[in-house]
């Protein structure tokens, strides 16, 4: 059984573009159920990108039941994160480039740690870009990690509003 690891942009775009927390609560209820069933998670570092912000999405994320269900319960392996940076982006990134890649290496590293983990992101592959401009799907390809977009996730986990 796959465990789907969400990028921050999946949560943000779901709220901003398709399923506003206050307008389509069924989506967020489904997401919480999937998190409670250990089908959907996000690494703490990714959660920490979104939860401190303002607005309805952040308020939803900061609910203790949501946080407990959604956040992956393992500590990031820093050696694996460093390997993702060095082999996925470049071994000699400067401070500006490190800031550009943000917390994405934590997402890919969490997926590498165990089989059957799938990264879910809104980013699109751009194999021609290099260094800090590389996209998550291309980093995942480098490490043999399956990477899908949110709409594939919704189909695979059979999300629907009835």
Distance separating the two termini: 25 Å
Q: Helical stretch count? A: 10
Element-by-element helix/strand order: EHHEHHHHHHEHEH
Oligomer: single chain
From the alpha carbons, calculate the radius of gyration and give it in angstroms. Answer: 15 Å
- Secondary structure class reads alpha/beta
Shape estimate: globular
CATH topology descriptor = Rossmann fold
Organism: Nguyenibacter vanlangensis
Protein name: DUF4411 family protein
Pfam family, one: DUF4411
What is the topology?
Elements: E1 3-6, H1 8-18, H2 25-36, E2 40-41, H3 44-50, H4 56-62, H5 64-70, H6 78-89, H7 95-101, H8 104-112, E3 117-120, H9 136-143, E4 146-148, H10 150-156
Parallel strand pairs: 1-2, 1-3, 3-4
Protein name: DUF4411 family protein
Organism: Nguyenibacter vanlangensis
InterPro entries: UCP008505
Structural write-up:
This protein has 162 residues and is of the alpha/beta class. It has one domain: 3-Layer(aba) Sandwich (Rossmann fold), CATH 3.40.50. Helices cover 54% and strands 8% of the residues. It has ten helices and four strands, in the order E-H-H-E-H-H-H-H-H-H-E-H-E-H. Strands 2-1-3-4 form a four-stranded parallel sheet. The protein is globular and about 50 Å long. This is DUF4411 family protein. It holds the Pfam family DUF4411. InterPro entries: UCP008505 (IPR016541).
């Amino acid at each position: 059984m796959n465990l789907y690891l969400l990028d921050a942009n999946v949560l943000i775009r779901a709220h901003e573009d398709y399923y506003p927390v206050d307008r389509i609560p069924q989506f967020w209820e489904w997401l919480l159920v999937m998190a409670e069933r250990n089908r959907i998670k996000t690494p703490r570092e990714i959660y920490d990108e979104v939860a401190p912000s303002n607005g309805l999405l952040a308020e939803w994320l900061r609910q203790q039941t949501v946080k407990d269900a959604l956040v992956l319960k393992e500590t990031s392996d820093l050696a694996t994160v460093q390997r993702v940076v060095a082999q996925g982006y470049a071994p000699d990134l400067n401070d500006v480039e490190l800031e550009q890649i943000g917390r994405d290496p934590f997402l890919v590293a969490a997926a590498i740690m165990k089989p059957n983990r799938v990264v879910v992101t809104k980013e699109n592959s751009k194999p021609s870009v290099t260094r800090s401009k590389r996209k998550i799907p291309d980093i995942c390809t480098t490490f043999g990690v399956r990477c899908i977009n949110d709409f594939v996730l919704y189909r695979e986990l059979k999300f629907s509003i009835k």
